[in-house]
Design brief:
By secondary structure, this protein is of the alpha+beta class. It has eleven helices and 16 strands. The strands form three sheets. The chain has a six-stranded antiparallel sheet.
């Protein structure tokens, strides 16, 4: 008996086999069908899908024998993996390599063997599809061709296994990324600071995590700051672009620094740290409820609207500057100060709100949004706008992130009151 030699590429071959993560797995119908067809095509009582491990051959599928593995050094398949093509032994008793092999002299009393190598998608041979008989025989060319086709199917199953393992790996990575992104957004949004009775907000990203950010914070001097930022792009790249803005906002508000200085620092950081094609449109407000004033900076965002209790749009805060990151590093922001009489609300949004399209690509439009605001009762404005946009979308996802913020001026002086947000 000739013990099969070890291939020169044995380390790479075994690595490929172990990457399949298939050894000692349960039976699978797809593999079982292949050995059943192989036995019928070649008219043999035994057919196997055999994977050659370092010291054994293990059967992923077997027809005609009960064993699940045998030793490698007596394995016909260990010879077959060296061939690179069909390996046929017409009569084992007449072949000096196998004449006194215990699988020939004892059970299963092999006389005929034909095996075709199976390959990992990277090209390394990991086993065979083989047929075995207890009597000498020859295969016709048609049988060899059909057996080769079955081996191709087996190779496809192995390739699918590799693809599924890769997909599972990336799904796991994606889940980890989603968890990370969700935690990042939670930290950035700081819901405990947004959960004020003075503010209602809705953020609807096109992906799990979008490029819109809503921040609110009360300074030690009891001024209330609100920021709505809209970064270019979506997903994690957009979020990364927003991280420095978020940090600057909360840090500088906690020091009661002027709004213009906060915007200046944001612009400088985006300009210096972000790629040249990345910028952030934003609207920022600083409310002083004691003096009934609001300071506003609008850089590339839709008009911020001051709405009276009776539904009139009393003032528009238009964009007066370019987005953060577009201005040069020596840019000095221009803010506007508005003093209100009585009470009212300020409405701000990202352009994704009025760019939302229905099934016929009709935009929502700012006119429709303003109509909802004007015609709705004060307590219902936020809900009406949100419901109107969702109805317009008709269950479809928006093409751009949507953010809406409504600040109730008469509640700004009572930071202790709060309510839940959707």
């Amino acid at each position: 008996m000739l013990i099969p030699p070890i291939p020169e590429n044995e380390a790479r071959r075994l690595e490929a086999l172990y990457q399949l993560d298939i050894l000692d797995t349960r039976h699978e119908e797809a593999y079982d069908r292949l050995v059943d067809w192989a036995a019928r095509i070649c008219d043999t009582p035994i057919a196997l899908i055999s994977l050659v491990d370092s010291k054994r051959q293990w059967f992923k599928a077997a027809k005609g024998i009960d064993a699940c593995e045998t030793q490698r050094d007596v394995s016909f398949c260990a010879h077959a993996i060296l061939q690179g093509k069909v390996f046929i032994v017409p009569d084992a008793l007449e072949d000096e390599r196998f004449a006194n092999n215990p699988l020939v002299t004892g059970e299963p009393k092999i006389r005929f063997y034909a095996g075709i190598p199976l390959q990992h998608p990277n090209g390394e041979t990991v086993g065979t599809l083989c047929v075995i008989d207890q009597r000498p025989k020859q295969l016709s060319q048609r049988q060899i061709d059909d057996l080769s086709s079955l081996a191709d199917h087996a190779n496809m199953l192995l390739a699918m296994r590799v693809a599924n393992k890769t997909l599972t790996k990336y799904q796991s990575m994606l889940e980890d990324e989603r968890d990370l992104m969700a935690e990042l957004m939670k930290q950035m949004m700081r819901p405990e600071e947004l959960d004020s009775s003075a503010i209602e907000y809705w953020v609807q990203p096109t992906e799990m995590m979008g490029g819109d950010l809503v921040c609110a914070s009360r300074s030690p001097h009891d001024k209330y700051y609100v920021l709505l930022a809209d970064s270019t792009g979506h997903g994690l790249p957009a979020v990364i672009n927003l991280l420095p803005i978020n940090q600057i906002f909360h840090t500088m508000v906690s020091k009661s620094l002027p709004l213009a200085l906060i915007i200046e620092e944001m612009n400088k950081t985006i300009k210096q740290q972000s790629p040249i094609d990345r910028f952030v449109a934003a609207v920022a407000l600083c409310f002083d409820h004691y003096n009934s004033t609001v300071e506003v900076w609008n850089g590339g965002m839709p008009d911020a609207l001051f709405i009276s209790d009776d539904g009139k749009i009393q003032h528009r805060f238009k964009s007066t500057d370019m987005a953060l990151g577009v201005n040069n590093v020596t840019y000095r922001p221009r803010t506007l100060i508005h003093q209100w009489d009585g009470t009212g609300q300020i409405f701000i949004c990202s352009d994704g709100l009025f760019d939302a399209c229905d099934g016929e690509a009709n935009r929502m439009g700012m006119l429709a949004i303003e109509t909802e605001l004007v015609n709705s009762a004060k307590a219902e404005r936020f809900t009406q706008v949100k419901q109107s946009v969702l109805k317009h979308l008709g269950g479809r996802s928006a093409d751009d992130d949507i953010s809406v913020v409504l600040i109730d001026l008469d509640r700004l002086g009572d930071p202790c009151r709060s309510k839940n947000r959707e």
